[in-house]
């Protein structure tokens, strides 16, 4: 009898816990989720995620993004990608995913999904918002719709639809735990062009031993100090992305990174590629106090921007080596110098 009473007391205590303390599946809990990280190694971001351990587990939640769909009357629940989510800023820190090619595309879903786990739900599958449920620890569709047709931000994908292989994978990217408020002209301008160009690179250069595309990608956002959407959702200052893959033709690992400020783009611009070393040096300014690492050591960091500039100065003599090359790109990612 005492055992039953103790069990009931435990259940009552768990039911009284605040939603922020509800359990969210960790990356290491699910074998399928670990596969989204090269060598099952998660990024290192000082103060947030170090050696696979989240520093503030009440604030940052590891989500194995599971998607439910029906095919030929059979219901499937599949892990599609992984996200580290900031429940205070209500945006992802990053999403990690694998690129395995592109296929047929379907119409975008009408509504973006949410993650029930973040607000006390027991279901570990992304789903549509429920009526009369208050979502305290994540963004909701109303946050983005508040400005109506005059809104200046989009739901900016971390894991972009264009990088997903099949329609079901593409549909799974439409969850608000995979999105940040991204300035519309930036999303539809240099960031969109960069994603298009990177996708072409991955299709051509990231081929495994069977000749099929395979790359590991991580895309993140650096939050602003106080800039918010609907007084709830942080509008990040900066977005970044990086990939690493084995190039079977070159017989070596290759890697590249891009980033830019999340701001209005009155004129077209091009996001130049950077090395992982450049990315890590940039991220250290936002995540101080330790080593930054997005991918394991086999992914070449390359020389830093300063080292490359010094090398170029030695080759061509003194001059302005920091001047950016102006280019213009069309929707097919074809770029010409201006």
Description:
The chain is an alpha+beta fold. 22% of the residues lie in helices and 25% in strands. The chain is built from 7 helices and 14 strands. It has helices at 2-16, 31-34, 141-145, 167-172, 184-205, 276-284, 305-316, and strands spanning 49-50, 53-54, 60-71, 74-86, 91-99, 153-157, 179-183, 215-222, 228-229, 233-234, 238-247, 252-261, 327-329, 335-337. It has a 6-stranded antiparallel β-sheet with strand order 3-4-5-8-11-12, with helices on both faces. The longest helix is centred in the middle third of the chain and has 22 residues, at 184-205. The radius of gyration is 21 Å and the shape is globular. Residues 1-22 and 307-332 have low confidence and may be disordered.
Set out the fold topology.
Elements: H1 2-16, H2 31-34, E1 49-50, E2 53-54, E3 60-71, E4 74-86, E5 91-99, H3 141-145, E6 153-157, H4 167-172, E7 179-183, H5 184-205, E8 215-222, E9 228-229, E10 233-234, E11 238-247, E12 252-261, H6 276-284, H7 305-316, E13 327-329, E14 335-337
Antiparallel strand pairs: 1-2, 3-4, 4-5, 5-8, 6-7, 8-11, 9-10, 11-12, 13-14
Which labels suit this protein?
338 residues, alpha+beta, disordered N terminus
What's a quick, concise take on this entry?
With 338 residues, this protein is of the alpha+beta class. Helix content is 22%, strand content 25%.
């Amino acid at each position: 009898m005492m055992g039953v009473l103790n069990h009931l007391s435990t259940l009552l205590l768990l039911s009284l816990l605040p939603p922020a303390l509800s359990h969210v599946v960790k990356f290491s809990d699910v074998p399928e989720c670990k596969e989204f990280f090269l060598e099952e190694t998660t990024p290192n971001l000082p103060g947030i995620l170090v050696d696979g351990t989240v520093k503030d587990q009440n604030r940052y939640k590891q989500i194995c993004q599971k998607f439910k769909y029906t095919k030929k009357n059979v219901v499937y629940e599949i892990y599609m990608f992984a996200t580290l989510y900031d429940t205070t800023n209500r945006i992802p820190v990053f999403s990690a995913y694998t690129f395995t090619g592109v296929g047929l595309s379907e119409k975008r879903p009408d509504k973006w999904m949410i993650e029930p786990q973040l607000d006390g739900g027991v279901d570990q599958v992304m789903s549509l918002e429920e009526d009369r449920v208050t979502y305290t620890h994540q963004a909701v569709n109303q946050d983005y719709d508040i400005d109506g047709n005059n809104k200046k931000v989009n739901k900016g994908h971390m894991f972009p639809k264009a990088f997903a292989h099949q329609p079901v994978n593409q549909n799974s990217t439409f969850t608000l735990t995979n999105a940040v408020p991204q300035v519309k002209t930036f999303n539809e301008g240099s960031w969109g062009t960069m994603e298009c160009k990177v996708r072409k690179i991955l299709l051509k250069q990231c081929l495994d031993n069977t000749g099929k595309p395979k790359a590991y990608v991580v895309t993140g956002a650096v939050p602003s100090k106080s800039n918010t959407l609907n007084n709830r959702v942080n509008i990040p200052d900066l977005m970044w992305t990086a990939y690493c893959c084995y190039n079977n033709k070159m017989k070596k690992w290759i890697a590249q990174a891009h980033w830019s400020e999340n701001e209005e783009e009155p004129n077209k611009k091009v996001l130049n590629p950077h090395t992982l070393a450049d990315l890590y040096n940039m991220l250290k300014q936002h995540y101080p106090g330790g080593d930054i690492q997005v991918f394991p050591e086999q992914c070449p960091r390359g020389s830093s921007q300063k080292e490359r500039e010094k090398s170029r100065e030695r080759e061509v003599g003194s001059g302005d080596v920091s001047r950016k090359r102006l280019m213009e790109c069309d929707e097919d990612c074809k770029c010409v110098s201006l």
